[in-house]
Amino acid sequence: FRFKDSLAEDLRSADLVISHAGAGSCLETLEEGKPLVVVTNETLMNNHQLELAKQLHRDGHVLCCNCSTLVETLQSMDLSTLKPFPPGQPEKFALFLDKVVGFQ
Amino acid sequence: TGGHTTEILRLLSCLSEMYSPRHYVFADSDKMSEAKIRSFEQKRAETFSNSQFTLNRIPRSREVRQSWISSVVTTLYSILYSLPLTYKLKPDLILCNGPGTCVPVCISALLLGLLGIKRAIIVYVESICRVETLSLSGKILYYFSDYFIVQWPALKEKYHKSIYLGRIV
Prior knowledge:
The structure holds two protein chains of two kinds. Chain A is an alpha/beta fold. Chain A has helices spanning 8-13, 23-31, 47-58, 70-76, 90-101; strands at 17-19, 36-40, 63-66. Chain A has a single domain (7-101), classed as Glycogen Phosphorylase B (Rossmann fold), CATH 3.40.50. In chain A, 44% of the residues lie in helices and 12% in strands. Chain A has a three-stranded parallel β-sheet, with helices on both faces. The termini of chain A are far apart. In chain A, 20% of the residues are buried. By secondary structure, chain B is an alpha/beta fold. Chain B has helices at residues 2-12, 33-47, 68-89, 102-114, 136-144, 153-158, and strands at residues 22-27, 53-58, 93-96, 121-125, 147-150, 163-164. In chain B, strands 3-4-5-6 form a four-stranded parallel β-sheet. Chain B has a two-stranded parallel sheet with strand order 1-2. In chain B, helix 1 (2-12) runs parallel beside helix 2 (33-47). Chain B is globular, with a radius of gyration of 16 Å. The A-B interface holds A 5, 22-24, 27, 46, 48-49, 51-52, 54-55, 86, 88-94, 96-98, 100-101, 103 and B 2-3, 6, 10-16, 18-19, 35, 64, 92-93, 95, 121, 123, 125, 127-133, 135, 146-147, 149, 151-152, 163, 165-169. Chain B: It is a single-pass membrane protein. Chain B: It is found in: Endoplasmic reticulum membrane. Chain B: The chain crosses the membrane at residues 67-86, 98-117.
């Protein structure tokens, strides 16, 4: 398929996700608790897209590779090394904003 | 646009109903945000009976990788367009997270504040994608926002006036 409104269903039934480094794709996948292999293509991407993929990789949440090393990565990967990704906390933002605006 | 809308809706997810009415501003070329916003507000209306929101479109300030000079022109045009909108809405609080759309809106709000018409609190939350560098909107609004929030510690170190609350989306 080309575009779907939501990949949630597909994500839930997947055992492994291979994705580009788009933030939405990465974060949604990690939030579903699925192992993720991020394929980066430095020639096509906005530079900043790499930042998140690199950080997630540094923190041990995803495996990274590029188009030419994808097959090798899939063959030799050990998904048990991946660390779970704790969810973001919008409640902290709400608390902060309440103080700022004076709604305590 | 896309990712920004998803992020901002997450930021809104834990806000109380005191933050009402909510006026969403997005680019006229943005086809997907409206659906996401409506879906969010519909769910919200299930819990909060008096939920109010409006949708407002402004011309897109800048296309990705648009040249500097033409960006200044299109942004000026967007500012002119958003001035009457901001004047009409007279927001108490502006929450933005980085799309080009937020710059003209914030600049309009600043102008209205300078003219003594309405002073809005501007809260900017940089996208979670920004780990080491700020977006162009972020670089501009770092100086013009009242509260500038980043989601990764490396940015807090680089930008001393910023606020780090951890990952909030």
